[in-house]
Amino acid sequence: MKRLSICLMLISSLGFAQESVELNLQDAINHALQYKAAVEKARLDLENADAQIAEVRANALPNISGSASTTYNPLLQENVLPGDIFGMPGETVSVAFGQEWTSNANVQLSQTIFNHAVFTGLKAAKSTKEFYELNAELTEEEVIEKVATAYFQVFQAQQSLENVDSNLELTAETVEIVKGLYDNGLAKKIDYDRSRVALNNLQSNKQQAINSIQLTKNALKFMIGMAINQDISLPEQNFEPTILPSRNLEIGERTELQLLNKQIELLQWQKKATQAEYYPSASLVANYGWLGQGEKIPVWNGEDQGVFWSDLAAVGVNIQIPIFNGGATRARARQNQAEIDKARADFEETQLAMELSYRNAISQLENSLITIRNQEENVELAQEVMEDTQNNYSLGLASLTDLLDAERELSNSKNNLTNARLDYKLAEIELLKSQGKLKTLNENNL
Q1: Is 15 left (phi over 0), alpha (psi -120 to 50) or beta?
Q2: CA dihedral 339, 340, 346, 347 (to 10 degrees)
Q3: Which residues form the signal peptide (predicted)?
Q4: Which one in 107, 139, 187, 440 has a CA-CA gap of 20 to 30 Å to 301?
Q5: Which of 136-150, 387-401, 421-435 has the highest mean pLDDT?
Q6: Which pTM value belongs to this model?
Q7: Whether 119 and 151 share a structural domain
Q8: Tell me: the pLDDT tens digits for 235-289?
Q9: Are 95 and 54 within 8 A, CB to CB?
Q10: Domain of 91?
Q11: Both 304 and 383 in a single domain?
């Protein structure tokens, strides 16, 4: 499989068709899981989930920041003070405070001591990661279902072409028989012309079947993320039914239900985060800094240039207590509960739909199996009728119309058998999907 993937990567990068690649179902699924855009986007969602979780965790970790500034004060603000301070009673004195230049550098640390919203977010982080993991798994299952469906449709198109080829061979023999009779004066020209028209119609059908194979192959290549110009072939495979209907429903394994359950859980965490706004919060704040003042720029000057530096520090605790916000928190909590109730309704509806899908898949399997057996018998009977009619026509005991009708019935029987087998394969896929076992398609070819 690894060698095949490397080969396909080289083919895609070169951008032109190379030697035909044979794909079995596992190869097609593995290629899709490796290169399909939907799967890659699901992987990126997982990476994004890790980043979101890291962001939530950061709220509980210490936050350290630093700042620095230099300010020039061309005009210092003056304050008027009573003259008594300076020994001049009855007078006022204007005094300018500060220096022309000030510089400061400060480092601040803040640490959450208690914040219910942060702690709730940390608890919800694990559920968020699990949600994206389930979403990625569901994406893979959807890709597997589409690839398997496209894969079997290629088989159907190929089988239809084989049916047309078989009918062409029979009709060509009929044309030769009618021509021989016509040359010997034992058949009318209109019979010969009618047989040739039937042959030409089948040749046209063959071209349509060839085109159908190419279209279904292109659809398969698109589904697995392969270059459209790459030639592929499918191995010989038994197209017979392989799964017997089982009535053991294990709906709890369905990824869709697990994902909906996880979504409900996340909505519940969201409601708890909203309710956390009722709780007070506390954080520790610490500052340490340096302040320089003087008549010159303090950054590179000291006391010898009239610049004086001093340090400062402060430690405190900030407490916020919510008292009243007009009922906004309560309103948001009610909105959260409404979303939870909607998600639960979706869960029940989805569960019911899955049970319906499972029962329908069982019925489809049983009906398709009956149809296959009937069509197999019809093909055998139509083959016998065709051979008998052909012999009778040679002996003049049957008309050309009888012969062409027999050929048409044989063709229809073969096509009906092919369609019934495809319907059974599609029902197999639907059954595995309804049981949450689609990934077994990548372990055992159907």
Answers
A1: left
A2: 160
A3: 1-17
A4: 107
A5: 136-150
A6: 0.72
A7: yes
A8: 876 666 665 555 556 666 688 888 899 899 889 988 888 888 888 888 889 999 9
A9: no
A10: 78-113+281-320
A11: no
